[in-house]
Design brief:
Layout (H helix, E strand, L loop, with lengths): L1 E4 L4 H13 L6 E4 L9 H6 L7 E3 L5 E2 L2 H9 L12 H29 L8 H21 L9 H16 L10 H10 L3 H4 L5
Parallel strand pairs: 1-2
Antiparallel strand pairs: 1-3, 3-4
This protein binds L-gamma-glutamyl-S-(2-carboxyethyl)-L-cysteinylglycine (99T).
Amino acid sequence: MRLHTSPASPFGRKVMVVLHETGLVAEVERRDASLTPLAPDEAVCAANPLGKIPCLELDDGTALYDSRVICEYLDGLHAGARLFPDKGPARFEALRLQALADGILDTAVGLRYETFLRPEAYRWPEWIAAQKQKIARALDRLERECAGFGERIDIGTLAIAVALGYLDFRFAADRWRDGRPALAAWQAQIAERPSLRATLPG
Ligand code: 99T
């Protein structure tokens, strides 16, 4: 299997975290791509017409995307505890939390492109502020919910840890921990997991 990813991509990091958690790292050849929406990568586009990473090419030539599909596929390849609960409320709670994390990331990556790629004259401060509000609301909800996470390790809690890591990586100046002591304490603890320590963004 070949994984197109990048050290800066939080979605790629989520897949790498799952590879570590499931003991499958050695099964995947990693190919780092450097891309933006304005400078797509040819090999990524050939595998994923959306031109986005992560993208996992299987040995039979099938390409899997996006990160949610790749993570669930990998979770079916190992014998350990499942990161995607099989069924019932636990499954939908894990999927909901992953959706919240990915929503934070979609918003944050959009903001990154808006502030890093878009020429200054075309930027729209109200839109940027509204996107930051989305992230703030999601973080406030997590501040209230995280006491219930306990020691839970599944695709939902891992995705939240990755999303918080991306905010530290690209938006440190926004200080997401301010006013959110419970979430900060939960993050400090989960960040010590070997899968998260081994995949810090760079
Ligand atoms: O949008 C593009 O053309 C290129 N962008 C990407 O490939 C980003 C890289 S994060 N990936 C996604 O947006 C994937 C989202 C998808 N729903 C998934 O896989 O879950 C780069 C972040 C950074 O450089 O700071």
